[in-house]
C-alpha cells in the first residue's frame, strides 16, 4: 500500500546500497503519466529506496521545487492545469504518498511490462533486471518507491555546473551501472540493454561504461506507440524467460506474435571508438510503417560508419 516515508537514511555518494549483481540490465524510459492508485501483486517483495534519494537527487529536487507554475508550464511544455498540478506536487512534496515505480508509471511501455500482473518470483526477477531512467530520481528499480512527479530528462533545468539534467545524471548513472556489473561473477558476459528513448539514454555516459560491459541497443522501427509497447514488452520477456545474454532476447515476438527479430549489426560505441555496440532490430509483422520512434543508440554510433552485420 502507498505510504509516506521520511526519506532520511544516509547514503554513500560512491556506492549506492541498492545495487545488486547483474549480468544483464535493461534500461527503460519512465512514463509521463503517474497512476496514483497503483498496486503491485500481493506478496511482492518489500518496496525499496531509490539509489540517489538522499544524495544526487537532492539538488535536482531543490531546483524543481523552486520552479513557479509559469516556469513549469514553459520549461516542460505542459498545459496550465498540468503546470498547476505539478507545482502543487512539488510544493507539497513531503506529504505525497509513495508508489512502486513500475506500477506507478502509466504508459504504453508499462502496460506491456505489466508489473501488476507478475508473480512474486517475476517481480523479484524484474527488480534484478530492469532499471528505469528518471529526470528526477536518476536511476530506479521497479520496486523503488517514488512520489508523483513530472520532470522529463529533456527539461532545460541546469543543476550545479551541469547545463542539462542528462549531463548531470551521467556522472552518477554510469558508475552505478558499472558497480552492478562489477558485482557479477567474473568472466561472465555483461550486457547493458538499451530500450530507452534518446532523451533518456543521454543520461548514460557510454564512454564511462566498464570495458567488459557490452551495450546492446534495441530498435523497434515504426509508429511510436508500437515502439513504446515493445520496449516494455521485451523487458517483460526478459523477466519471464530469465534472459542472461543478448541472444536470449532474439526470441521476443510481442504479445500476439507481432514482432520478429530482423538482424543484428555492430557499430562503434561512440564516434572514433574502437569499442563496439550491438544493435538488434525487430520488425513489426504486417505493419509498422516508418517515421516512428526507436530505442536510442549510443551517441555517434549510428552515424560513425563501419556497420558490420552479425
UniProtKB/TrEMBL annotation:
Any one Gene Ontology cellular component term annotated for this protein: cytosol
InterPro entries: YaaA
Origin organism lineage: Eukaryota, Viridiplantae, Prasinodermophyta, Prasinodermophyceae, Prasinodermales
Region spans: Disordered: 283-310
Biased composition (Gly residues): 285-304
One of the GO BP terms on file: response to hydroperoxide
Superkingdom: Eukaryota
Name by which UniProt lists this protein: Uncharacterized protein
Amino acid at each position: 500500500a502507498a505510504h509516506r516515508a521520511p526519506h532520511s537514511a544516509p547514503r554513500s555518494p560512491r556506492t549506492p546500497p541498492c545495487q545488486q549483481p547483474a549480468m544483464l540490465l535493461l534500461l527503460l524510459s519512465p512514463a509521463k503519466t503517474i497512476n496514483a492508485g497503483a498496486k503491485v501483486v500481493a506478496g511482492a517483495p518489500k518496496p525499496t529506496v531509490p539509489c540517489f534519494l538522499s544524495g544526487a537527487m537532492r539538488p535536482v529536487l531543490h531546483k524543481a521545487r523552486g520552479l513557479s507554475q509559469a516556469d513549469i508550464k514553459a520549461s516542460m511544455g505542459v498545459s496550465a492545469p498540468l503546470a498547476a498540478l505539478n507545482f502543487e506536487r512539488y510544493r507539497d512534496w513531503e506529504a505525497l504518498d509513495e508508489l512502486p515505480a513500475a506500477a506507478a508509471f502509466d504508459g504504453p511501455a508499462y502496460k506491456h511490462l505489466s508489473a501488476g500482473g507478475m508473480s512474486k518470483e517475476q517481480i523479484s526477477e524484474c527488480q534484478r533486471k530492469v532499471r528505469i531512467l528518471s529526470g528526477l530520481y536518476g536511476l530506479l528499480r521497479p520496486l523503488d518507491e517514488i512520489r508523483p512527479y513530472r520532470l522529463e530528462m529533456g527539461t532545460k533545468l541546469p543543476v550545479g555546473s551541469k547545463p542539462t539534467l542528462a549531463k548531470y545524471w551521467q556522472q552518477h548513472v554510469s558508475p552505478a551501472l558499472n558497480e552492478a556489473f562489477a558485482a557479477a561473477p567474473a568472466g561472465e558476459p555483461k550486457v547493458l540493454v538499451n530500450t530507452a528513448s534518446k532523451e533518456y539514454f543521454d543520461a548514460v555516459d557510454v564512454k564511462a561504461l566498464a570495458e567488459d560491459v557490452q551495450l546492446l541497443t534495441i530498435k523497434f522501427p515504426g509508429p511510436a506507440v508500437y515502439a513504446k509497447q515493445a520496449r516494455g514488452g521485451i523487458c517483460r520477456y526478459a523477466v519471464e524467460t530469465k534472459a542472461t545474454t543478448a541472444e536470449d532476447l532474439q526470441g521476443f515476438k510481442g504479445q500476439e506474435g507481432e514482432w520478429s527479430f530482423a538482424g543484428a549489426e555492430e557499430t562503434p560505441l561512440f564516434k572514433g571508438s574502437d569499442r563496439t555496440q550491438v544493435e538488434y532490430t525487430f520488425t513489426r509483422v504486417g505493419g509498422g510503417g516508418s517515421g516512428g520512434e526507436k530505442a536510442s543508440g549510443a551517441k555517434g554510433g549510428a552515424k560513425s560508419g563501419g556497420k558490420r552485420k552479425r
